[in-house]
Amino acid sequence: MEEIKNVELEKEENQINQMQEEQNNTNENPLGTEKISKLIKQFAIPCIISLVVSSLYNIVDQIFIGQGVGYLGNAATNIVFPFTVVTLAFSLMIGDGASSYLSLSLGKNDKENATKGIGNAIVISVMLGILFLIIGFAFRDGLLKLFGVTESSYEYAKQYMTYIVIGMPFFIVTNALNSIIRADGSPQYAMATVLVGAILNLILDPIAIFVLHMGVKGAAIATVIGQVVSGVVSILYVKKFKSIALTKESMKLEFKTIKKICSLGISSFITQVAVTVVIIVINQMLTKYGAESKYGSDIPLSALGIVMKVSQIINAIVIGLAAGAQPIIGFNYGAQKYERVLKTYGFAIKVGLIITVIGTVIFQLFPQVIINLFGQEDELYNEFAKMSFRIFLMFLMFNSFQITSGIFFQAIGNPVKAAILSLSRQIGFLVPALLILPHFFGVQGVLYAGPTADCLAFILAVTLAVREMKKLKNMSKEVEVN
Fold first, then answer.
1. Disulfide: which of 34, 141, 194, 225 matches 30 by Cβ 3.0-4.6 Å?
2. To the nearest 5 percent, what fractions of the chain are helix, strand and coil?
């Protein structure tokens, strides 16, 4: 390319220098050398705390609403929940995609593209936040009907959504930046961004509901204040990146970069969108078949909504564990250290299984203890709630393998298999089961759809993972030979 003398010699020297820099980068970066269990502990624990605390946002609302308003208030928050999940889907697609892009680029010592990817991700997350703010206000009533609102819960749901929409820009930016901050090597800061908002929400919720008597509106306002504070703390990190230095040039949108980020984050997006679809279908089925049962529509809507949100705490721990392993897997895959990739994945699978088994035992043996946290209701409500915990979460332990494998494929830059795993449980298996089983078992058919989907998704995840493990072992042998 250069029209000067000794061009070939200069090219060879540049290639040698680049190889030396890449080797030095791999050797110096602890992701490529440090003990795997220590790395996962370092990255996963703050990530787990962040995700669990994030999950507690809605659960805390429901606990105080259940105590102060009753199960109709809880039914209302469950109805609005799909909107929050949809916004989270876009946020995680950008955030998780950008974090994978960052890890893979740093593994290849390509800081220019790493910087460009993060800059583009930040701009897109801000744009998405504004877009969902507009959508939430413009189509509120139509969305509530889509999400399965009943006549009894409409006023509560309208109040809750009116205020919760205001926090969406901050909610999206916080969750997008959270993944990126972890991948940049600051998991403690990422944890703090979520923790500060959650603690604030925890303090303001009882004040708004029990002192100011603002009901579900107060719970929504408390949540929004927490989200705003978390968003501000996240944005402050932009000038503190360790691995890159953001510039105005890196924030100029580039279609190729955005496409790559979205493809790497598509698994997270599909997972959350699938959750939204599932919640909508569940709400519609519970409304229809609940009305035909002794429980009515509102009891199943409230009870199963609580079951799903409580189970998300266990799933959040598993996701946090896998997300903590993601930068380790991504870096070592980019650096061709496939043996470390296999060990990291295996470690995450084992720990995740232990967590989900413990969760399954708790939900099977002590459902009433959990139910009582959300208010003292009548025997009919308690009967359905206990049945929901024991049936719907019967095979919760299988989720660990499916969740971890999906994030694993995302980390190694294989979005197709990651998307397949993300789609399998929710869209491929759970939605059809929700549409079919209630015809034969009534409202209980909705509950049996959960364990049915868990089993089928587990079988698919094992099949894809075993094939990939064999492939990685062969690649590891080839690297050793060369």
1. 34
2. 85, 0, 15
CA angle 54, 56, 59 (to 5 degrees): 140
How far is the C-alpha of 114 from the C-alpha of 97, rounded, in Å?
12
User: What residue type is assigned to position 142 of the chain?
Assistant: G
Distance between start and end Cα atoms, the chain: 30
- Domain range for 410 is 34-481
Alpha helix stretches (DSSP H) within 29-167: 36-68, 71-107, 111-138, 140-146, 154-164
Task: Count how many domains the chain has.
Answer: 1
Nearest partner of 52 among 184, 182, 191, judged by Cα: 191
Question: Quick check: 386 and 368 in contact, CB under 8 A?
Answer: yes
- The separation between CA 235 and the C-alpha centre of its own chain, rounded to angstroms, equals 20
Is 128 a member of any domain? Answer: yes
Nearest one of 269, 259, 268, 263 to 406, comparing CA atoms? 268
Whether 376 maps to a domain, the answer reads yes
- Distances from the Cα of 462 to the Cα of 205, 272, 455, 466, 469, angstroms: 42, 22, 11, 6, 10
Q: Does residue 3 sit within a domain?
A: no
Number of helices and strands in the chain (H, E): 18, 0
Rounded Cα distance, 345 and 328, in Å: 9
3-state secondary structure (DSSP) of residue 255: helix
Series of mean pLDDT values for 10-residue runs along the chain (482 residues): 38 40 53 82 81 74 81 80 88 88 78 84 92 92 86 87 92 90 83 87 90 89 92 90 81 86 82 81 91 89 87 89 86 83 90 94 93 81 93 92 87 82 85 94 94 94 90 79 64
